[in-house]
Every structure is written in structure tokens, then in C-alpha cells.
Please model this.
Amino acid sequence: RQGTLDDYVYLEHGAHYAIGALSVILLVTIQYEINEIITGLIGVVLIGLSFWSSLRRNKAIAASGGGHGDIGGSAGSKAEVRSGV
Model:
């Protein structure tokens, strides 16, 4: 509703990667014991990196004089890059 995923376009991808990593860890824990701190840090790091990448992208677009997150720097509306969520 607030357009957060439109402003931070890689955040949703990072959440999906974190879920994927956590599911792999879950499968690995069938055979080996993995500390919860490691499991939690992996998810936090993946989401943090995706947030950081989104910030870098937003700064690069702002520096190039692009629009509101539009692809290729063309002057379009925000509706063009909706995440669909």
C-alpha cells in the first residue's frame, strides 16, 4: 500500500533468497547440527545486503537524474515498476 517494495526493489528478492537459504539449512540440520545464531545471521545478512543494494540503486538513479525508480532512466511513472505485491 505504501510502495515500500517499489522503492526498495531488491528487498523482496532478498527475502526470497533468505527463505531459500533457511530451507536448505533446515534440510542440512537433518544430518548435522547448526547453531541458531548462524541460521539467523544468514537470513539477516541476505536481507541486509538486498536492502543495501536497493539503497545503492536508488542513489545511482537519483545521481543520474532518473525518475522514480524507472527502468533505464526514462521519465516514467512509478506504476511502471510495481512489484505486484
